[in-house]
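A quick word before the example. In earlier lectures we treated sequence and structure as two separate objects. From today on, think of them as two lines of the same record. Here is Rhodanese-like domain-containing protein written that way.
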Amino acid sequence: MTIAASDAVQTSSPLFATVATNADAIAHFRARLAFESDVSDVHAALEAGDAGFVLVDTRSDASWAQGRVPGAVHLPTRRIADEASGLIGPGTPVVVYCWGPGCNGAQRAALEFALLGHPVKEMLGGFEYWVREGFAVESDEGRTRALPDPLTNVSSQALPSGGEAAGPISCAC
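And the structure line, produced from the sequence above:
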């Protein structure tokens, strides 16, 4: 359903007391997409084979040992400036992740990689949302996979009665 400009509802909501122009909103959201990706898109790129980037886990050694995204390179943020050039070729695109949306470790890591000249994106949601989406997790003991969290992903358990899915569906948005 399309709402014509003449039919648009005017609001007195304080939420819209200050609002960006359409041009500013377009620039803002385009920029966010240039800097960020979600776990579903990263997963899809990795599953496709040649992702075209290196996925970097920027968490601590203890967090890495507990579990990580299969195929990720481990490079804690505090070591990026000194060690990145020995692990990742100059100018190689990088996607970074940390624990989850409640920390800014991935943003700090992204800044470090940008300072070194790498094209870089942050994986929104980090490792927490990777696990919540039900994607494979690797540890020193092997691979595991949790059931998708029905609040973050659609699975056969989360579909209405009679609905079916063959497994996790990329991004429930």
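Notice the following. Confidence is low (pLDDT under 50) at residues 156-169. We will return to this example when we discuss secondary structure assignment.
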